[in-house]
Amino acid sequence: MTTEYFTAVSLDGYVADPDGGMDWLSGFPPTAAKRDRFERFFAGVGAMAMGATTYRWVLAHEKPEAWRRHYGDTPCWVFTHHDLPVPPGADVRFVSGDVAAAHDAMRAVTTPSAPTVWLVGGGVLAARFAAAGRLDRVHLGVAPVVLGGGAPVLPVRTGPLRLARVDQDGAFVFLTYEVPDRLG
Ligand SMILES: NC(=O)c1ccc[n+]([C@@H]2O[C@H](COP(=O)([O-])OP(=O)(O)OC[C@H]3O[C@@H](n4cnc5c(N)ncnc54)[C@H](OP(=O)(O)O)[C@@H]3O)[C@@H](O)[C@H]2O)c1
Prior knowledge:
By secondary structure, this protein is α/β, with parallel strands linked by helices. The protein is 26% helix and 31% strand. The chain has helices at residues 32-43, 52-61, 66-71, 99-109, 123-131, and strands spanning 2-10, 14-16, 45-51, 76-79, 92-95, 116-121, 137-143, 151-152, 162-169, 172-178. A hairpin with a 2-residue loop joins strand 9 (162-169) and strand 10 (172-178). Residues 6-160 form the Bacterial bifunctional deaminase-reductase C-terminal domain.
């Protein structure tokens, strides 16, 4: 069982622009290779987690029926202090506070064929997992775009991560890092 943060990021390390927007990615229609990479990853996902800002972005920008098309019945823990709606048929579980307790619940629903907890993002939530020692791997699809500001990919201080893999797909570089047991 591993917990993996898989996200697109700008060259200067942001997952969203200063207005929370994602338009900077729309200039790069997904290639077959990029889709395959994500589908291979998602096939191993048994549970997923989002911060409230990311979840609100998904609710605002995707049609409600798209949730099941994208994520099927994979359970998604949403970290929030607020009451938020749930798309039809989505298995969304709202939690707040300690990430370790919620992470234990996520791990409990993973299976040998779907052993991965996917941290969808954003950076604030992924950083809380990292700080709690609950992040094993980071996959970054680096877009050739400089945003100059926005939502940072992982706003926490770490020691060196281990670079496990580098791939090129067209204009993107895909980087996989492993997080050592002890950070900082
Ligand atoms: N490039 C990509 O592929 C990608 C991937 C993911 C996200 N994004 C974008 O990144 C942006 C958001 O990133 P972000 O890092 O600012 O925010 P985020 O991690 O998505 O959400 C942070 C919010 O989640 C809630 N939260 C986090 N931890 C919590 C806890 N332990 N208990 C209760 N609530 C908790 C709080 O919201 P409340 O207090 O309001 O409930 C907090 O302000 C969005 O615009 C999103 O679309 C991009």
